């Protein structure tokens, strides 16, 4: 009985010390700090768990469901809690909050890995939280009012590294998710659809398309790209990150189309080159209409443009060989030779490419050595750059809607 009473006494003393510490925190550091949010110690993990599982549930969270609600609101709420921990000089609380949030984000991403909107939403919020930590740890670029909310006691560098790594991981997952949607559409839209009617009749025998309609058309492909772009805009992702994502997706379109062209002999003819060049021009027109012509996406289309031109140019004389050498600068030697050997002339309209033309001195000088790459590695990801973007928002003006069920947050 004595041992049982001692254990009970120790347990109650431990609880008493915990409550005394909470009272001390509340009296020593009042909650009324401008530009910060606080909750009791036992609710710290509730914040991290609440944000990705409740607020960011695809069915429950709509960033524009409330007038004036920010798509990056979860990031701002997390930063407000981090700021209050900084004000209280409680570095362990600040770190545990962000660590728990990062773990919760990863769990939600694992569950919704194929949902482009969810991944885009979390990527935008991770970037915003990262930028808030950077912005309020320095004076540059802030207004005088924002400098009043600077972090004073907690060094955010290690948290910035963790969030930066998570943001890169989310960007890569975003690209992979979009690629799953695009891959089944590319070949049918770029090579099998026939936007210019009547050209298939000039195809060589055995190369004419079937009468059945292709599974996907170019307008469908452009609509899918447009929906990706709209989702990135909707969730407030930085323009440079949106441009990098679209550039990566157009690299997939170029690489997949070019690989199919190199592997299928029936695609190497003049009429297919005309259709392909027309489809590329539609992609270029879409980029201009969306204001993306200076995003770097235009450049990744160049190998496909040159392949289409290679199918259309004359390939008979030494002069033709010289013009061809100056034309195909973005294609590897093996790709150029492969297309020339697979090329089938239109019956009665063109001469077959002679072996002497392919082995001509100019072509051998230009394409006799160098890269032996034939197929494009469509799984290649360009390195992503996540730029710093300061928020114009003042933290003490942030409005948290009552409908978010955050009664434990002050």
UniProtKB/TrEMBL annotation:
SMART domains noted in UniProt: DIL (SM01132)
Stored InterPro entries: Dilute_dom, Vascular_dev_regulator
Highest taxon of source: Eukaryota
GO MF term (any one): GTPase binding
Pfam families in alphabetical order: DIL
Residue span(s) of domain Dilute: 99-367
PROSITE patterns: DILUTE
PANTHER family cross-referenced by the UniProt entry: DILUTE DOMAIN-CONTAINING PROTEIN (PTHR16027:SF6), DILUTE DOMAIN-CONTAINING PROTEIN YPR089W (PTHR16027)
Name of the protein described by the UniProt record: Dilute domain-containing protein
Lineage of source species: Eukaryota, Metazoa, Chordata, Craniata, Vertebrata
